[in-house]
Amino acid sequence: MHFALTDEQRMIADTVAAFVRTELYPHEDEVERLDEVPAELAAQIRKRALDAGLYAPNMPAELGGGGLDGVGVALAERELGKASYALHALVARPSNILLGCEGAQREEYLLPTVRGERVDCLAMTEPGAGSDVRSMTTRAVRDGGDYVITGGKHFISHADVADFVILFAATGVEDSGKKRITGFLVDLDTPGVTVRKAAGCVSNRGYHTCELIFDDVRVPTGKRLGPEGLGFELMNAWLGSTRLSVAATCVGRGRRVLDLTTGWAARRAQFGQPIGRFQGIAFPLADLTTELDAAELLTLRAAWNFDQGRLTDRDVAMAKLFASETLGRITDQAVQVFGGLGLMAETRVERFWRDARLERIWDGTSEIQRHIIARSLLRPLGA
User: Fold this and answer.
1) Which ranges carry the Acyl-CoA oxidase/dehydrogenase middle domain (predicted)?
2) I need a surface site. Which of 25, 317, 330, 355 has the fewest CB within 10 A?
3) The pTM is what?
4) Domain 120-228 maps to which CATH number in 3.30.70.1350, 2.40.110.10, 1.10.260.40, 3.40.50.1370?
């Protein structure tokens, strides 16, 4: 196996890293304080990302995107992951579900989103339907040339700044008794749609989750995304790539926090020597460095398998599980090494600690990832 990155891949990583340092890092404290990205700042970052050719890196070049392969996207997400997520998200990675757009949908939704003119959000989760997506109760009932959508979604990321939602709703029941899920493209200014911010979240300040309410919302059949009843397949396609991005983000954030913690351990003196010389500090840092390298290799292996056309759910689950849990251990140890200062806002360590906790929950909990891995082991044996 060849582990070296190509010159182009190294250039991608270096270019994104430089953008993060100059365009994102300087604004992190303001966003943390305001719990908001000011509109002018968001527009500035988005424009500079577009000018630098970094916007929509996962979308094909012929559509105006970055045209990066799986490894390239993972490297870009690794570097972006070092920054505040509210700012990271402005260098958009539109949902690849939009590649399922056909006909007029491409001009109305896909292409403007790739160009940074429109912003999408994705709505699957409901108060009673999280990991068990098929238990969703939001319904879309056919009525002539329209669907009438009723129900609600929650934990919908950045719906407060989005123009439209990629919505999944139940459109009937299969012979097996499972609900048939269908995708829709719904403009958030459609009559009957209500968007409201959810309660404040401890993680990712400035990047909000929202509730969406659909009260007899009429959506033309032309805004159905893909064939009726195949929304579950569309969701699975999206979850694979987004979980891989979560893994890459965790690796990048872990690298930033570990560098910060190691630097502190080298400078902070107690009992006449740097605390990093004490085994109680040094050995955990050594273990976490090893784990982080392993998480990165799992992530890049999954991205490489994607490029070879042989990515499996197990590959993605292993990368997302290990990288997110490694980040949790790194940030927890960072607080311990910094001591009382680790809980003070001025060191930023407590921010990394808070933000890291979410990574083990969204886009598939650690338990779901373990279920996927275990299933891959047992199914071939008939269990």
Assistant:
1) 121-217
2) 25
3) 0.93
4) 2.40.110.10
pLDDT tens digits, 145-179:
999 999 999 999 999 999 999 999 999 888 777 88
Reading the block at residue 46, the tokens are 């988005």
Distance CA 339, CA 93 (A): 36
Contact yes or no for 127/152 (Cβ under 8 A): yes
In 134-282, DSSP assigns E strands to 139-143, 146-157, 164-173, 179-187, 193-197, 209-220, 224-225, 269-270, 273-274
For 299-332, write each residue's pLDDT tens digit.
Answer: 999 999 999 999 999 999 999 999 999 999 999 9
For residue 103, give the DSSP letter: T
Report the C-alpha gap between 172 and 136 in whole angstroms: 11
Closest to 253 measured CA to CA, from 54, 77, 92: 77
Measure CA of the first residue to CA of the last residue in the chain; give whole Å. 32
Angle between helices 279-307 and 70-80 (to 10 degrees): 150
